[in-house]
Amino acid sequence: MRLGEYRQAEAHGRQAPAAHEAAPEGSRAPTREAIARIDLALAVTGLGDPDEAAALGCTALGSARVVDSVRSRAGDLNAVLAARYPAHSGAAGFRDMYRSLVSAAHPAREAQMVEGGSSHEMNIRLPYLRLIASGVKTVEVRVGYPRMRKIRAGDLLTFVSGDDRQPTRVKRVTEYQSFDAMLDHENARSIGGELGENRDDLLAVIRSIYPPEKERLGLLAIEVERI
Q: 87 CB contacts (<8 Å, ≥6 apart)?
């Protein structure tokens, strides 16, 4: 998301918890209220305030009704805080609270998080990171190196270019035997933005990065969504 989008999300997000709090006690919806707080926390994280984000997240997880939908949204907040503020004490406190709740509900999933097997970082050229951040580029293409083959749907994948970072969640990973086969099935614009409007131009750029011996290793189309 861009700065203006985070500000719009923050403005909307501050209204939702207030509306829930103003509702009569018997008609309040704890699940929706908790999710609204986490959505606001995601917005203020994007605006550079991890302290408020962590506090909002902890308040949400302290709700009287923390169900899977709340834990799932809290997982998104945890991923963003970990990617953008890895050493922040408030983010660490929220992470501990989140892991404790997930451990109680889903022990196997918590063990996977502690091992760190579902979190990856990937270096990328800045123009492509910006396309991902804007939501235009939703498919990243990589050669099938062993490290890349560890990426699975549901994993956190943070794209890095210098000091710029964009956390995402992996939606799927599809393998192809050639770039031609990949472009027969994937949306070219989702791979290369405006460059994808011309298949031949996109193919030429991809092959300039990955020569034939790399192509023979297999190709992975990694579809992601911003978080």
A: none
